[in-house]
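pasting for ref
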Amino acid sequence: MLNSYSMEPRAGFVKSELKSIGISFRKTDAGDYRVNYRNGVEATAYYTDSLQDALDTGRAMCRKYGEAYAAAQAGGMSNGDCHEFATDQATR
């Protein structure tokens, strides 16, 4: 859902969308947005002041793992599966 006056997505929409594909999203005390894999380490975290950038980056983080993203979009994966898939692939 977009705000009609700014065309920027709402924080609730971004959080819900990213959660559904296993990406965590939160607003920091400094006012920025933090995007990361669920249970991801600080090294993989991304910070931005834009909700649209947070949404796009979170989707790209998951899309990077192709089949995990496709399965998450199809509803076949639980929250966190992009992170779990990435971790599994890294250990092979």
